[in-house]
Model the fold of this input.
Amino acid sequence: MAKTKSSASVNMQIGLEVIRSYRRLDYTPWYALAEFVDNSTQSYRDNKEALNATYEKERSQLRVVISYDRDADILVIRDNAMGMSLAQLRRALQIGRAPSSTAGRSQFGLGLKTAACWFGDQWSVKTKKLGETRAHFIVVDVEKVAAGRRKLPYKALKAAAAEHYTEIRIEKLHLKLQSSKLGKTKDSLKSMFRVDIREKELLLIWNNTNLNWSDDVQLLKKDDGTGEEFQPIGFDVGGRRVHGWVGVLASGSSGRARAGFAIIRRGRLIRGWPEAWKPEIIFGGGTGRNDLINQRITGEIHLDAFDVTHTKDDINWQADEEVQVQEGIKKAIPDIINRARHYRRPEEATKAVTLPPPDVWKLAIDAVIENTDFGARARAAGNVLSSAVKKAIPSDIADLVLKEIIDAVEHAPGLVRIKVGDAVIRVNVSAKLGADAPYMAISEGRGGVWIVAINAIHPSCALPEDIESLRIHLQHSLADGLVLWAARTGKISGEPASYLFLKDAILRYMGGGLV
Done:
């Protein structure tokens, strides 16, 4: 059979309509805005010598000003970096064409277009390069471009050679930044560019307000008083350098909202506060265990040579890179982990706890509501409450059930023996009661010794490796047992309010030695 000769070929083409899809990218306002700030700071880095000489004459420095008018539906980002020539502007508008150097923050040739289209349906760029005598102005109407209009409206404007700037103006916005989202956007931006702000290489401004970053966390002091408890780290993974530091947060700065690592790449934060990176091998799975590790360990991890996602909101880990980085960090900080887990101030057993600031508590509580199913579970509890009350067993039957549980564990060794006046209460924690048994049972055993049995595998209990959550389960269960003992022996009145205040007193005392 003769072979058929063919010279036909099939070419892949990307149509202009792809520009419409940019509004569906997985951005947040702060990561989208960071694309513009990346371009500005990279322009400064690429032209540092010339711009520093100019700034000295102007008595200025690199400034990125973000102006947002919610009522007018306009967002403007303006910098005083190098600016672009017409050739550079043309290159910047080519979709997917990488910059001449990909070693900096501008890497994929997408950020300007994707972020602007994500924010709004119409945007413009006005730019003037230092030393040239013309400024350039173009307008992008997303719908017209998507319909096939390749030629953008363009104007050349006369300008002084000393001028240098780029201004991006976005209109027909897809979203309005409400107060909560607006606050998080500003907080996240100053966190993301903390290195530039810290080193005084960037003045980041939002509607006439400087976004200043403050490293206000306090690290634990070393026992010998020689300095703060932190550990520099440095190692290679597949020829790529990992470096930074890990420390232990001091009382007043600790808490789940402040703990975790900031991932920094090429001087720009990729992931960090208020959504820090918590490697599972150190902090536990999910959002991390609720233990002292998750309240105290912090640090900055620099991953300059690693790949980043196209939205620059995380490291684009390859193969087992993330596992190797996690293991490398953990291997480097055994003393830090031990210090975080076991440190107690000598005075903490008798002195009231120094509580973190209210904003730290708010962030932690917001994280629980947003990142867990607590809200759904709470609503479900409300829905079944009336049914549960109707099905509640009579008190005499309940006493028999509790007595059976106590009989089953009475001969097991007790965990703690408590003396209250002349009375003795033995605490027994058992994993043998079964998940269907109550979380706690109390009854009088042989010889007048009262026994509190705590169910270690009740569904509300944490996993064994979640030490801090397990401690909280034991603490609340024991407090409930002691309150019931006090009620049954007539130490307190039968009024429910009395139970509440007695448990509150017990929990406050038991928690007095913890940070």
User: Anything to note?
Assistant: Residues 384 and 425 are 34 Å apart (CA to CA).
